[in-house]
Write a structure and sequence with these properties.
The structure is a single chain. 5% of the residues are buried. This protein has 140 residues and is of the alpha/beta class. Helix content is 49%, strand content 18%. The longest helix has 23 residues. It folds into 3 domains: 33 residues; 63 residues, Signal recognition particle alu RNA binding heterodimer, srp9/1 (2-Layer Sandwich), CATH 3.30.720.210; 36 residues. A hairpin with a 4-residue loop joins strand 3 and strand 4.
């Protein structure tokens, strides 16, 4: 069915590598997709819902709040800096479970950025190799 010449072909291996990159990219995107959709709300609506007892839990990540309502729906809002720290007693008084998470790393230090940089350097090296016809001139 497949000839040996097919597996020796450079085009075949380039196509396989491209297909693997596409599959891995799709897998990364799907793994980062959130399972539930969070509805953005304004901060004043969050305060009204908290006072009315319709909020069951809050996850604070810096100035971003992920909100879980008593009916199970999810929402998110942005607060002023240190809102949760200053008002933790009021939130607990309303029966809200509070969880605080650390801020994540900047995205510039991710594996995707590293792979993009390595691919760029590789393409630059390949271009230099092709331009010089495989002969890298000596510096001395």
């Amino acid at each position: 069915m497949f000839s040996r010449q097919l597996f020796r072909s450079r085009r075949f291996w380039i196509a396989v590598a491209a297909l693997l990159v596409i599959i891995l990219s799709v897998a990364v995107v799907l793994s980062r997709r959130q399972a539930a959709i969070r509805q953005p709300i304004v901060f004043s609506d969050f305060l009204q819902e908290a006072d009315a007892g319709r909020i069951s839990a809050v996850v604070a990540n810096g100035d971003h709040l992920d909100i879980t309502r008593t009916d199970g729906s999810l929402a998110e809002t942005t607060t002023s800096a240190n809102y949760v720290t200053a008002n933790i007693a009021d939130l607990r008084k309303n029966g809200i479970k509070i969880e605080v998470t650390a801020l994540g790393e900047p995205s510039a230090y991710s594996y995707g950025a590293l792979l993009l940089g390595v691919a760029f350097i590789g393409m630059l090296g390949l271009s230099l190799y092709r331009v010089t016809s495989g002969r890298i001139p000596a510096l001395w």
